[in-house]
Design a protein that fits this description.
Layout: E1 43-46, H1 53-65, H2 74-77, H3 88-97, E2 103-106, E3 120-125, H4 128-141, H5 144-150, H6 166-175, H7 187-199, E4 206-210, H8 211-216, H9 218-229, H10 238-244, H11 247-252, H12 254-257, H13 279-283, H14 286-297, H15 302-309
Parallel strand pairs: 1-2, 1-3, 3-4
Helix pairs in contact: 4-6
């Protein structure tokens, strides 16, 4: 049933949070959502870093425009609203000028943004170990000096220090004891983001998508998503749209698909580094994987973990 069709809500999330929580980092501020003028049909993509954000942006843009030849780079068609690199007024103006159905990116959990009945909210889940490995490599590809310049000198230089090998870093990441609001890309932050969306999943405009489902059956997931969003696609258009959403095609069109402002990524092609699952498990022993699973059980409900770890 499309999200926009009326149906009763089950009240599973009633009364949790009425005022959005504020999440801030050196490069993001969820307060930029305050006062955002939603339109009927808006699509908000809320994911953790390196969990399929750009992939879902591409899928949605292809469904909206229904052509592999998108009219502008993906970062312009689907701006990142709470990113401090681009002034808030500029992002609002760009979205105001868009006449097509809007696709808006955020890394903020749903409890940190307005959940408006006029919009659909897509949350992508990825195995946290794979997300973390991808995040580690992404850290080496970011131009921190450029980010500091664009944010007025506020971006942290903590990632510039020599880091341990990825396996050692991953083990530390698993055990890092922080609050989600302090580090959303920590394991507690990932589990909070997904647990919050999981608790809302019966709401008709909240849609959860698994990264591995996109990998295993991209066309099937795109067709399901089109139905949920109330988008009709002609049969003859599907092959071209699905091909354009593949990892290989996005990597080939990196200048139009990669996120961010010019100079943010040292090597835009490296943003699409691997795109497959299992990188985290490959690095750890069976005992270390069991330790991760024990840690995850303390941070998220069992049914979410069954869905997330399958």
């Amino acid at each position: 049933m499309p999200w926009c069709q009326s149906r009763p809500r089950d009240g599973a999330y009633a009364g949790r949070v009425s005022t959005p929580r504020r999440y801030r980092s050196d490069e993001e501020d969820s307060a930029r959502w305050v006062g955002f003028p939603f339109r009927d049909g808006d699509i908000v993509i809320s994911t953790r870093s390196k969990s399929g954000t750009t992939w879902m942006q591409m899928v949605c843009a292809l469904l909206v425009f229904q052509t592999p030849d998108l009219p502008a780079p993906l970062s312009q068609l689907s701006p990142w609203l709470d990113w401090l690199v681009v002034p808030r007024a500029d992002v609002y103006e760009r979205l105001e000028q868009q006449r097509h159905r809007r696709v808006i990116k955020t890394h903020t959990p749903l409890d940190g943004i307005p959940v408006d009945d006029r919009a659909a909210y897509l949350v992508v889940g990825r195995h946290p170990l794979d997300m973390a490995v991808s995040l580690y490599h992404q850290g080496d590809n970011l131009n921190r000096e450029r980010i500091r310049e664009l944010t007025g000198g506020h971006a942290s230089g903590r990632h510039q220090q020599t880091r341990p090998p990825v396996r050692d870093w991953l083990l530390t990441w698993i055990d890092r004891d922080v609050t989600p609001s302090d580090q959303l890309d920590s394991l507690p932050g990932v589990m909070w983001h997904l647990s919050d969306a999981w608790a809302r999943r019966q709401q008709p405009n909240i849609i959860l998508v698994h990264y591995d489902d996109l990998s295993a059956d991209l066309e099937g997931e795109m067709r399901t998503l089109a139905t949920r969003l109330g988008i009709t696609v002609a049969d003859e258009a599907w092959p071209g749209l699905v091909k354009a959403a593949t990892f290989a095609e996005m990597r080939a069109a990196v200048e139009r698909a990669a996120p961010g402002s010019p100079g943010i990524l040292k090597d835009p092609a490296a943003f699409f580094r691997r795109g497959t699952s299992g990188a985290g498990a490959e690095l750890l022993t069976s005992d270390e994987l069991q330790h991760y699973e024990s840690r995850a059980r303390a941070l998220a409900p069992p049914d979410l973990l069954t869905w997330l770890h399958r």
